[in-house]
Amino acid sequence: MSMSEKIGIITCSNAATEMDCCAAPCLRDLNQHLGSFKEHHESPPILAGMITCAGCPTLAYPEKIMRKVKSLIEYKISTIHFSCCMVSLCPFLNKYIEIISEEYPDVRLIKGTHATTISHEQFREYFNIACRNHLNMNDIIKGRVTDDQKKPGLRRDEE
Ligand code: SF4
Ligand code: SF4
Questions:
Q1: Is residue 133 part of a domain?
Q2: Is pTM beyond 0.85 here?
Q3: Quick check: 87 and 111 in contact, CB under 8 A?
Q4: Which amino acid residue places its CA nearest to atom 2 of ligand 1?
């Protein structure tokens, strides 16, 4: 039997903080060896740590992510997974990958965490609806979104 890899997960700070995402779908698929945790790991990986990104780095300082990466690296992880929200939403992700790869060439960098049946565009649309209507990630995941809330430009406090 192959050895389980020790991994870290980095999530989008906007999804985690502004949308109160407790990462339940990420953790469910990690625990059940599904999604990217199955696709990229022969054996169920061991989660050493999970951390949000450092927030918007601006175009001036994408290296801001490195303090978060270092926090995970100290626990001798071999792989970092970037959460699905980060893959769908983050305009800096490819730059982050470039910077992290330069400093830690032996660490595997994987885009994705839980299994998903929606496209990046659909994820961005859900995020847009949630932000416009002051919904959180649980409202999206559990389907507590009304048809009115899906209409462009309609905010809950304008109803
Ligand atoms: S969009 Fe990117 S930089 Fe901005 S909070 Fe999300 S992961 Fe961090
Ligand atoms: S990928 Fe989904 S469940 Fe995981 S942290 Fe992002 S929004 Fe939450």
A1: no
A2: yes
A3: yes
A4: 90
